[in-house]
Structure formats: C-alpha cells, structure tokens
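name: query_chain
kind: protein
chains: 1
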Amino acid sequence: MSMTSAAPHHAPVMPAEVLELLAPREDGLYVDCTVGLGGHTELLLAAGAGRVIGLDRDAAALARARARLASSPKNLLHADWPARVELVHADYRTLPQVLAERHITAIDGALADLGVSSMQLDDAERGFSFRNDGPLDMRMDASAGESLADRLADVDEGTLADVIFQYGEERHARRIARAIVAARGRQPLARTAELASVVRRAAGGGTWQRLDPATRTFQALRIWINGELEGLDLFLRSTVAALRAGGRLVVISFHSLEDRIAKHTFKALARPSDGSAPLGRVLTPKPLEPTEAERAGNPRSRSAKLRAMERVA
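structure:
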C-alpha cells in the first residue's frame, strides 16, 4: 500500500482484551502511547472513551491514523470525534512532558503497543524488512537520528556482535558481525537486500528453514537503531504514576526482552523492595496471548504478549 492511499485498515492486536482491561468511560481520558495506524485509538473512541491522546514518533503513521479516524463509519465514531482525540508527534517515553504541557495531572488509562508497526514493515522505503528491497534506514522517526546505513558504516565489530546477540538472540552473532564489517569494507551497505544477503550467507543453515536467517539480525538492528529498550522501565513507572487510582496501563510486547522488562517493572511497582507502599497491582500474573482465531486472522499477532497493571490509591 502506498503512502498516499486512503484510510488504512489494519487489525489492532488483542482488541477484546484491551477493551476489557481499559473499560473506557465517557468521562475518561486515555492515552494511546503508540498510536500507529490508529486501530486501538479507533477502538477506544468507538467504545465511548471521552478523550484520547495518541502519541507516535512516526509522523507518517499519525497522518495515516488521522485518515483512518476521519473515514471511520458513523456507527463507530460519534460526529464529535475530532474534539475527542488529539494526535501528537512524540516518543512515548516523553509522555510526562506531553501531559505537563497540557496541564494534565492524571489519566484514566494508557496503552502501549510496542515494536514496529504494520505500515513500517510494509513500506519498503522505510527499510525495516528484508522481504522487499529498500534503503537501509529503519528509523521509526524518519526526521531524527542516524539511518541504519550510517550507523553500520562505522560501528566496530565487537559492538555489532553484541547488539545482534543481545537484541536478536542470534547464536551466529559474531560470524554475522564479521561478515557485515567485511562487506562494508568492499562497498557501503545501503540496501536491505544487500544486508540480508550478507547475513544469510554468514548465518548458513539448510536450504529450508522456518525462520529466515536474516530475521533475528534485522530485529536486533531495528531495536538498536531506535533505542527501543532504552527508557522502557522508566516509561512504565512514570505512566503508572500518572494514572488515577483504579486507572490501568496495558502493555503489548512482541519481543521477549520487552516483555521481561514489563514483567519485572510491574512486579517491582506492586512489591517495592524498599518497603514503601505499592504503586499498583498486577492484573496479569501471566501474560495474555492472542487466541487461535486471532492468530489465524492476524498472523502478525502471533508473538504478542499483554500485561496490565492497575494503579492503587
């Protein structure tokens, strides 16, 4: 789908679970911390949420979300939806600042759907996927920071190997890092297809594999270039602190490292080690996962894990 297409249609992950946990009210204020294509924001508005603030660091995603909401059927959105939603170009980790700028002291609920969006994966020009050749970019915010091509041009082999091993859990990390450094010595790596070819040759394996050999490395490099794990713990803590008593934070993750951070942060908030009063209670002792029906209808939901916390007085 081109970037100029009409309103996008993509299925928000675990919609029933999100609505059950957030239980949006007409007098409530909710934050969609990673609005993406607007699926969850549309869901909240249609369920009667009084007001939604949607954040995303990808300006293109916000434009698509706005188009989606504008074309949403009238039986889903009330005519006054523009007055009920505000879309903000901001990283979710700046939520405290976004709220302060609007003189908001408490919110009734928040959702963070972490990771890369369908739009980003499907648009070859963004450089997220090895399935379609495109420029080696991978930035979620195309207006800030270095592209992956620029970062790969001078990163040392040891650091690169650590990134691929830690974020991609790739056992051939050192071999792959060595191959990438050797390849860039011959000519700069500028295209996703070039990088994928280098990684596949280095990773080896049989002629048929369930997972493409480039998958873990591309995932690791995406997490690295966007700093996806940096500040996640602090974001979760500050968001729970911003909730009213009884307000809830729902986090959907697609990577074991993200889920692990959410698990441990929620546990620490519910049972502080310093003996202080708990800030919240964990609503999901074990993460919720998509149903078989959802996995079949929306394959990209397969690895999703949902955790939720409720603010206590």
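note: The chain is about 40% helix and 15% strand.
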